[in-house]
Amino acid sequence: MRAPILAGNWKMNKTVDEAIALVRELRRLVLDVEGAEIVVCPAFVALASVADALKGTKIKVGAQDMHWEEKGAYTGAVSPLMLKGLCDYVIVGHSERRQYFGETDESVNRKVKAALAHGLTPIMAVGENLQQNESGQTAEVVGAQTRRGLAGVTAEQARRIVIAYEPIWAIGTGKAATGAGANAVVAVSIRGALAELYGEDVAQSIRVQYGGSVTPANIAEFMVMPDLDGALVGGASLKVDDFAEIVKATARLKRGA
User: Fold this and answer.
1) Which member of 67, 94, 96, 128 is catalytic?
2) DSSP notation for 26-41
3) Which of 63, 75, 137, 176 could cross-link to 213 by cystine, CB 3.0-4.6 Å?
4) pLDDT digits (tens, 9 = 90+) for 56-110
């Protein structure tokens, strides 16, 4: 059984002091939660402080991005070596990185491999935009992003990866996909691509999150779906009560599944 994973992507929000205050409260609110893995992904400047505030707790820390090189003349970039010891997870290929910073399937693939090589677990984001969705290209686009992002990754390595299905048209818009719709994309396009690459056993072992306007009000619609193993949460993860409720609801629903 795949353990659900809830990851809060804070994006470019929260000062160091605000980040510390949020995780201290989150730590208290989810103290008794069992059966769900919890990850928070603050901005780079808050990683060390958040990691320190969460020492000895069940909550894990993730970075929002990283470069694939260990070091070099890449002004403003952060390498996997710099992240080691600060976090367990790293988001790669988020649609905002693709849209605003020129990320491609090739660069995502390099980051996935670099993360794995340095003991970090990549959360690899895939998803189609509104035009692609409305023109019936979802399966083609999402399947291709999955295959290209994992090019050259072994089956053993793939078992360590988390994939986040984030339809771009649902991110930060308040317009979420339906639970059944998201589940179908994951089951057919993502797990289908994984089965082509690694076989059905590996495809069924990899955790796939849903992301895109997730809230306490709609989380149940997604978490009752068999192929959705948690959520990559944006705006709601900045509100500690909302994120804690999403975590609790997921743990409760998946326990009963």
Assistant:
1) 94
2) HHHHTTT--S-EEEEE
3) 176
4) 999 999 999 999 999 999 999 999 999 999 999 999 999 999 999 999 999 999 9
Containing 125, the helix (H) or strand (E) segment is strand 121-126
pLDDT exceeds cutoff 80 at 141: yes
Q: Active-site residue 37, yes or no? A: no
Which class for 239: exposed (0-12), middle (13-18), buried (19 or more C-beta within 10 A)? middle
Alpha carbon distance 106, 192 (integer Å): 20
Would residue 67 show up in a list of annotated catalytic residues for this protein?
no
Annotated active-site residue in 37, 103, 128, 166? 166
Query: What is the value of pTM for the model shown?
Result: 0.96
Query: Which class for 48: exposed (0-12), middle (13-18), buried (19 or more C-beta within 10 A)?
Result: middle
* Average pLDDT along the chain: 96
